[in-house]
From TrEMBL:
Record-linked PROSITE patterns: TPR
Protein name (database record): F-box domain-containing protein
Pfam families associated with the record: F-box-like (PF12937)
TPR repeats by residue range: 35-68
TM annotation in the entry: none
InterPro entries assigned: F-box-like_dom_sf, F-box_dom, LRR_dom_sf, TPR-like_helical_dom_sf, TPR_rpt
Record Gene3D superfamilies: 1.20.1280.50, Ribonuclease Inhibitor, Tetratricopeptide repeat domain
Keywords annotated in UniProt: TPR repeat
Domain named F-box: residues: 152-199
Length: 544
């Protein structure tokens, strides 16, 4: 289609008040660098309330046809809308200079526009003067009154609850609150629950542990030990002996064998209330996860292991309520027997040994699956996973054939989030398949009314991330978004008689350099959230 045909379609849509369609047609026609195309698209943006984009197209139109008065007039109106009165007045004067002497109607309209600009300028100046005057008056009145500290009138218990909400959200803010005033400092010193989160780093771990354990009366609820703290010459801290380990709920340790420490302290099987455990041995020889760390029926819901050896069979023996498993290892052990994890909803696997275990895991309730840095093709892994209940799928820095992944996604009818990042030669074909309708069987999509139903793959898909996939292009992404936009009733009935597909809400395409920047406004207009950062400052610094 030539630019003129697209332009005419855009004019027709604009006259019919179908501004979204008009915008698309004008964008298709923009490549020929025609003044009328950019001026018409600016008018469409103005109707849609996209004033920034309208000004950009108006500037382009003026550059292509500097002797035409129309774009100057539009620029004057747009600047007036954003209350830039000086620029608006300048544009109006330039438009007047370009109107023919005999065109009295246009001349009168522009004179009226300039009068409106001058009136708006006068009103803005008066408002500014009044505001400054009132501000000065209020400042003088406020300086004559004594400042009142109303927060200090609150009951100490209520103040403690407010501080707890803040510290629970960000434990680092405790030190900030201590420096505000004497009243806050006294309240915090005498509220043990505010000291329940202990994070030990390279900065005086012994001193910090002593102070936190003393202030909390040993009731540490969350313990995080970073690797630099373990390297301290006085590690482990003496204060840790006074921690009520049976009350600990969250434990994250790096390069520290906490199980051996508890054994040496004669505290085997004491972590009865632990719900989250993270063990990271990235900087040392891989250790085994000791079963002595747990009681017979622990409360652990989330287990993260990095460079840590463990037995998958022990997961079923000790972790009866496990919901999340995140393991990152260079090699994972092979399984001889099937491991039943009936409650697991979140599984993250990273490393070379993904193929060794997935064919032996029974995960009937799996909802979130994340696969990272697999050295072999993941086709076998996908064949071993049942995607019927899957809500989120992430494949990162791995090898997978497009055909296998497409077959997997056709069965993932409940999928809401999809991440295919740092993949090469796969993402573009998969995105293209996601925008093309195909025939669902009733068993696949649980549609009882008919044996086969037309629809899109992953009909509930709302969020997709294709960052750093070098093959992804603009066309497939545009078709994917369009295929999931709300259709008129007649078209919807024709395309999908029984199934309604979810509109795509967010798209992240950072590091995808093949995406046409001219389409970025269209993406932002049709998505709630869109990100396309071509390069970070660090990656682009070599060009400077």
């Amino acid at each position: 289609m030539t630019w003129k045909a697209s332009f005419n379609q855009g004019i027709k849509s604009f006259r019919d008040s179908r501004y979204e369609d008009a915008l698309w047609h004008f964008t298709e026609a923009r490549g020929d660098q025609q003044y009328t195309v950019y001026d018409s698209r600016a008018a469409t943006y103005e109707k849609l309330g996209k004033l920034k984009e309208a000004l950009q197209d108006t500037k382009k139109a003026i550059g292509l046809a500097p002797d035409r008065w129309q774009s100057y007039t539009r620029a004057a109106r747009l600047f007036l809308s954003v209350q830039k009165h000086d620029a608006s007045s300048t544009m109006a004067s330039m438009a007047l200079d370009r109107i023919k002497a005999g065109d009295t109607t246009r001349h009168a309209e522009l004179l009226k526009l300039r009068d409106d600009i001058n009136e708006a300028q006068r009103v803005a100046d008066n408002f500014r003067k009044t505001t400054i005057k009132d501000a000065r008056k209020n400042a003088v009145a406020g300086s004559q009154q004594y400042a009142q500290y109303n927060f200090g009138k609150l009951p100490t218990e209520l103040v403690g609850e407010i501080f707890s909400l803040i510290v629970d959200e960000s434990p680092e803010t405790l030190l900030v609150l201590l420096r505000v005033c004497q009243h806050w400092r006294t309240t915090i010193w005498h509220t043990p629950s505010l000291w329940a989160t202990l994070i030990l780093t390279h900065r005086n771990p012994n001193k910090k542990a002593t102070q936190w354990v003393d202030r909390s009366n040993g009731h540490i609820r969350e313990l995080r030990v970073r690797a630099p703290a373990v390297e301290h010459r006085h590690w482990p801290c003496n204060a840790l002996a006074r921690v009520r380990w049976d009350r600990l709920r969250v434990c994250s340790v790096e390069t520290w064998d906490i199980a051996k420490y508890l054994e040496d302290m004669s505290l085997k099987h004491i972590l009865g209330h632990l719900t989250i455990l993270a063990v990271d041995n990235y900087a040392v020889v891989p250790r085994s996860l000791r079963s002595t760390l747990f009681v017979e029926s622990p409360m652990v819901r989330s287990l993260t292991m990095v460079h840590t050896n463990f037995s998958w069979n022990e997961l079923t023996e000790y972790f009866h309520k496990l919901l999340v498993v995140d393991t990152q290892s260079f090699s994972l052990p092979s399984l001889d027997a099937v491991v039943e994890l009936p409650n697991l909803v979140h599984l993250e696997l990273a490393g070379a040994g993904l193929l060794n275990i997935t064919n032996r895991l029974a995960l009937p309730k799996l909802q979130k699956l994340r696969l990272c840095r697999g050295s072999l093709v993941l086709d076998t892994v996908l064949h071993n996973i049942r995607p019927a209940r899957l809500l989120e799928l992430s494949i990162i820095q791995s090898l997978v054939s497009p055909s296998c992944l497409i077959d997997f996604l056709r069965k993932a009818t409940s999928l809401e989030r999809l991440e295919l990042s740092h993949l090469s030669g796969t993402t573009n074909e998969v995105v293209e398949a996601l925008s093309a309708p195909f025939r669902y069987s009733s068993s696949t999509r649980n549609v009882a009314e008919s044996s086969a139903t037309a629809g899109l793959m992953c009909p509930l898909l709302a969020h997709i991330n294709v960052s750093y996939s070098p093959d992804i292009q603009t066309g497939p992404l545009v078709r994917l978004i369009r295929s999931r936009l709300p259709q008129p009733d007649s078209q919807a009935a024709e395309l999908s008689p029984t199934v309604s597909d979810q509109k795509l809400l967010s798209l992240q395409a950072d590091g995808c350099e093949l995406i046409d920047p001219e389409w970025i406004p269209w993406f932002r207009n049709n998505l709630q959230k869109f990100s396309c950062i071509y390069k970070t400052k660090k990656s682009a610094s070599w060009k400077r």
